[in-house]
Amino acid sequence: MLIDVKGLTKKYEKLTAVDNISFSIKEGETFGLLGPNGAGKTTTLMMLATLLNPSGGTASVNNFDIVKQPAKVRQSIGMVFQDPSSDDLLTGYENLRLHAMMFGVPAAERESRISEALALVDLTDRKDDLVKKYSGGMRRRLELARGLLHQPKILFLDEPTLGLDPQARDLVWRYIEKLSSEKKATIIMTTHYMDEADKLCDRIAIIDHGKIVALDSPDTLKKKLGGDIIRLKVKDPNISAIKKLKFVKKVDRLDDTVSITVKGASKHLQEVLKVVGDVESVELRTPTLNDVFLHFAGREYKPEEENAEGGFGQRVLAYQAKK
User: Fold this and answer.
1) How many angstroms separate the Cα of 16 from the Cα of each of 21, 69, 124?
2) pTM
3) Looking at the domain covering 3-217+305-322, what would its CATH class be?
4) DSSP secondary structure string, 103-161?
5) What's the CA gap between 36 and 302, in Å, rounded?
6) Which residues of the chain are in CATH 3.40.50.300 domains?
7) CA–CA separation, 64 vs 61, rounded Å?
8) From 3.40.50, 3.60.15, 3.30.70, 2.40.128, which CATH number describes the 226-286 domain?
9) What is the pLDDT of residues 149-194, one digit of tens each?
């Protein structure tokens, strides 16, 4: 395995940010860490990137121990920070050239690697523009190019599309898929967008309160719910009556919304409506990753409540200093 994590733990006095988690990632895999603000996903990335020392457990990245061989780990990884870290007073080309020099890219290879990276993210025509003139999506693509410039085996992406509009998000998704398919990059990413994880990740780990509560492929996790979802908005639902129905597998309630996992939902919808109460709206669909989170974590995942969990951007100087 290219990344192997065993019992990894991070404590801050009485707070346990990451609680004895274990997982492994094989070469060429895109692996997602999902969870609400403060769940521990960014802290996990920070430990794997040697920006934080663990309180317990072990982990290896590219077969190098994150505590005993941090320099080797850092040579093996590329990073795209949650917060923009490119210099907006330099051009796109100048940012990449500076990065190449800092990461020891051989002088004879710098120009060819910069050209290849710019072409990969479709920024060749804008390479001589100041980064401050770039759109959010263009800047994100430049960060991807920079993270790949020294040809790392592993790419860490911390919230790669945070704050982008839908069109820019779609473009970044395409480039991440391109990195996986063409460059065979091994990617570990955090995201709070369920659709992003569903589209890009081969497997995901859902982290809640520092623990992994579910780990598998998106499709397998959705299948584990074992049915369709009837989502009802109802002020005073008769939960006990719903649970007595033989075809109902699970009932989750959040405020005035009830999510019911049912085998053969379309067939049994009328029976549910008869017992549930005064229904304001009805939605019938197949399970999503948000339903998976609700099932395993016991509450709904609300991206709008997500706040920066201490992204990597503000730690870039510390990271470069360790180089």
Assistant:
1) 12, 25, 45
2) 0.80
3) alpha beta
4) TT--HHHHHHHHHHHHHHTT-GGGTTSBGGGS-HHHHHHHHHHHHHTT--SEEEEESTT
5) 8
6) 3-217+305-322
7) 5
8) 3.30.70
9) 888 889 999 888 887 888 888 888 988 898 888 888 899 999 888 8
